[in-house]
Amino acid sequence: MKFSVADPGDGYTIHAYSSTELVVGELHFDSSIIILPDQIISDWPARTAEQLQAADFETLLELKSDLVLLGTGERQHFPSPDKYRCLTVAGIGLEIMTTPAACRTYNILVSEGRKVAAALIL
Length: 122
What we know:
about 120 residues, alpha/beta, Hypothetical Protein Mth938, Chain: A, three-stranded antiparallel beta sheet, 3 helices
């Protein structure tokens, strides 16, 4: 799935997505990442939604975004609430969706100037 290119002044945006690759500008990723308008974390250890641990969400907490989009791959999978309790306690919103939907939503929110983090599982 290809996306239109946003104004580079908006920050990092996702240009293309497939089940095996994400393209952000000229960068290609073949494993799970966390992306924010001003930062990319390419060593996020999450590999499947079913294997998510509390520590994976604590990494997201440290980023201090207003909202986290969790892309769980090709199928939507809801982790146990105890895994993401740290975000709830901190008042950080969490939206769980498929990775393609999270990519599209992330680009829209970045274009609106929102402080959003997308945790994307491939």
